[in-house]
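Ticket reopened. Same input as before:
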Amino acid sequence: DAGVIQSPRHEVTEMGQEVTLRCKPISGHDYLFWYRQTMMRGLELLIYFNNNVPIDDSGMPEDRFSAKMPNASFSTLKIQPSEPRDSAVYFCASSLSRGSGNTIYFGEGSWLTVV
Amino acid sequence: SQKIEQNSEALNIQEGKTATLTCNYTNYSPAYLQWYRQDPGRGPVFLLLIRENEKEKRKERLKVTFDTTLKQSLFHITASQPADSATYLCALDGSNTGKLIFGQGTTLQVKP
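Engineering reply: fixed in the latest deploy. New output:
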């Protein structure tokens, strides 16, 4: 399997612009997670889906952030409008529910810089 | 409040020694705890999972312990090598719903 695929790998954008990050989970996985990683706050869970349905979005920082999962093989995380404090690495991850103990597989991340 | 705490200071050890990393948690009752490795510029990679009814788990040079009374997990790398240098993250599912929460990670530097 190709693993979790994220795009773009790097993005530099100007404050106020819309940013869309994309993710293709591992085929057959029914959980999808969006995490954000910064030096100050570490790895934070933003939102996760189970069978394409958002289960918990309590980590989404504010209304400027939105995430969708239109089908089992694709998800987007959108920031509109972007701000410099959104600069971070955004990771998408997926897992296969197997009872207790779901191992999460991460993509390589999307490195976002908002100037 | 709920917290997962790992030593934020980097751990520097000599090649061949045993590295021990600590993960403490507060106000969680996880059914299991996981450890991940993250290299610079890469996503975290799963290493080991230990369940609440397991005291210890081993995989090659890695060993994890889980003490639900102390609310602590220890992660050991024996006979450490420079290639083990990375950041190690612990994670747990505090609500047993599949929502995995991570500690800040501890950076390990193994010197030759």
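The interface with chain A takes residues 31-32, 34, 41-46, 49, 51, 89, 91, 93, 96-105 of chain B (CB under 8 Å). Chain B is about 0% helix and 55% strand. Please confirm and we'll close it.
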